[in-house]
Amino acid sequence: MQTLIENVNIVNPFEEIKTRQNVLIEDNLIKEISSTKIKADNVIDGEDNYLLSGFIDCHTHIFAKGFHKEENMANPLGLHFYNAVPHSLQTINAGVTTIRDCGSADLSFKLAQQRKLFTAPKIHLSITPLVMTGGHFDLLLPSGWDMEIIYPGFPKGRCDGIEEVLKKTREVKRAGADFIKVMASGGVLTTNTSPEFAQFNKKELKTIVCEAKANDMKVSAHCHSLKGMNNCIDAGFSSIEHGTFIDKKTAKRMVENDVSLVPTLLVHQFLYKNGFPAWDSYADEKTEKLKEIVKVHKENIQVAYEQGVNILMGTDSGVIPHGHNLEELVHLTDIGMSADEAIAAGTVKAAEFLGFNNLGLVRENYVADLVLVNSNPLEDVSILSNNENILKVVQDGCVVK
């Protein structure tokens, strides 16, 4: 199948904009890009708008709707899956064609997307994060009720000690994970944990990495804690998510050890501005922890950027409502990144991190994941944060918006 998008201006990070171009798509690939006329049966008039690669959100939770324990208790399990349908459409409509899910989605979502059962971003799965007893996302409450969602094919994440973390890594891989996610510090959403404290010890972390690498899998750490980040660097992790308390020395170590950072600046700002539901029993505790994070997060991530850490776009959508994904680009420019750098963090740099060498740019022989927008994002990257400016979205050569 061929589709032609004609009369567009092509935007690739760090390149001159190519004006008045025609882009021929064959099946799921960009076959030809030319300023001269191309013939095709199916033609889309780009109307002199701007064509970019589809974006990659490197930190989402596509099944999640706030991670409210009360809802886990009250809702039928089926809603956990059905939530993914509107969340996926919101994500696509925001211009995101691929996501890296950092916990909650299972193999069923990946298969449903591949079989086109509903409109959804392509997914890179972690299944469920590994958590230590009493750590972030150990959802066994003081009452004795365990709020963790489990079902066949979705293993429980709790584990302690070398033998247990080894087995749990294997269980998560068996369930269909593309990478391993580890809760290496406390967090905002879990009661009785605090973001500044490290979780899991070095032997446990190294065991997880060793087993993952034996299966050619990367390991990612939810980590706010400075000590936790350094433990993960020592263990051989590939990425740090959030990185709230990072300092100059740790940033340099990340560069030296090729560890990427997904700062998720949007989520903390969004929660701080909008708060938690009035019925959330832990809202006050979460808000207090959030205040401490918001004070330092932006400044510390700016330090990491200045030290040359590889920064990728991620939003933590699912903790906050889906569909706001490209607002993260504005936050990335607020720490000093250029529009080119911010767009690259959500396209070609993210694709490279996920192991794709033909994704993230508008080029011949690249995957036809594309976004058509109504003005030049290199002049004002904030236009991408308004979904009304996202005119069309193409995924694997098919128009999905």
UniProtKB/TrEMBL annotation:
Domain of life: Archaea
Gene: hutI
EC number, UniProt record: 3.5.2.7
Keyword Hydrolase: yes
Domain Amidohydrolase-related: start-end pairs: 51-399
InterPro entries assigned to the protein according to its UniProt record, in alphabetical order: Amidohydro-rel, Metal-dep_hydrolase_composite, Metal_Hydrolase, Metallo-dep_Hydrolase, OTAase-like
Organism name: Methanobrevibacter thaueri
GO MF annotation terms: imidazolonepropionase activity
Matching CDD domains: Met_dep_hydrolase_A
Pfam families reported in the protein's UniProt record: Amidohydro_1
Alphabetical UniProt keywords: Hydrolase
Designated name of the protein: Imidazolonepropionase
